[in-house]
Amino acid sequence: MTRPQDKTVLVVDDEPNVRQYLAQILLDAGFNVVQAGDGAEALEIIREQPPDFISLDLVMPRKSGHKLLYELRKDRKLSQIPVLIVTAHAQDELGQGDLRDIMDNRVLSGPGVYLEKPVKPLSYVRAVQRALGIEETPEDEDRISLQEELQNALPDAEPHALRRALEALKKQGTL
C-alpha cells in the first residue's frame, strides 16, 4: 500500500507565504515536501531528484508554470510525473490563456488537474492522494478538517483559551 511518507511532492510557487502554506498542508498529511520559488528553480530540483508529484503555480517570474510544464512534457521520464496546477489566475488575463492552452493541448487532462486559490486543505490533499494512488481515509479527512478549523479559529482566540488548549495537547503527548 502506498503511503504519503513514501512520496515526495515539489511545491512550486513564487509567493513564499502561499508556498509555505501549501507545503505545511502536505507535511501535515505525511508527505515529504520540497519547495521551489519559480519554474527555473523547480526544473533544477526536478532534474537533480525527480519528485513523485508537482504542485505548480501557473504565473511566476523567470519561468512560468506553463513553460515548465511544456519542458517537462518533452522529457520521457519527467513527463510521467503527475502535476496539479494551483493558481489564482484561472479566470483572469494573467493565467486564463495559459490554462486554456494546457487543457486544449492535453498537456494535462481530466478532472482534478487544477485548483483555484485559495485552496481548501482537504481538497488539496485529496487531489495529491488521488494522483498518487494513496488511499483516502476518514481519519485523514477528520484530522485535516480539524486542523483547518483550528487555523481559522486561531486569529480570534483569546490567549487564555490558546494556553489551555496547548497545555491539554502537551498533557496528551500530542506535542
Summarize the structure.
The protein is α/β, with parallel strands linked by helices and about 180 residues long. The chain has helices spanning about 15-30, 40-50, 65-75, 95-105, 120-130, 140-155, 160-170; strands at about 10, 30-35, 55, 85, 115.
Keywords:
175 residues; Rossmann fold; globular
Question: Can you give a write-up of this model?
Answer:
With 175 residues, this protein is α/β, with parallel strands linked by helices. Helices cover 48% and strands 13% of the residues. The protein has helices at 16-28, 39-48, 65-74, 96-104, 121-132, 138-153, 159-172, and strands spanning 8-12, 32-36, 53-56, 83-87, 114-116. The chain has a five-stranded parallel β-sheet with strand order 2-1-3-4-5, sandwiched between helices. Helix 2 packs parallel to helix 3 (65-74). The radius of gyration is 18 Å and the shape is globular.
Could you outline the blueprint of secondary structure elements for this entry?
Blueprint (H helix, E strand, L loop, with lengths): L7 E5 L3 H13 L3 E5 L2 H10 L4 E4 L8 H10 L8 E5 L8 H9 L9 E3 L4 H12 L5 H16 L5 H14 L3
Parallel strand pairs: 1-2, 1-3, 3-4, 4-5
Q: Tell me, what's the shape?
A: globular
Largest pleated sheet: 5 strands, parallel
Class from secondary-structure proportions: alpha/beta
State the CATH architecture of the largest domain: 3-Layer(aba) Sandwich
Number of strands: 5
The proportion of residues in beta strands is 5-15%
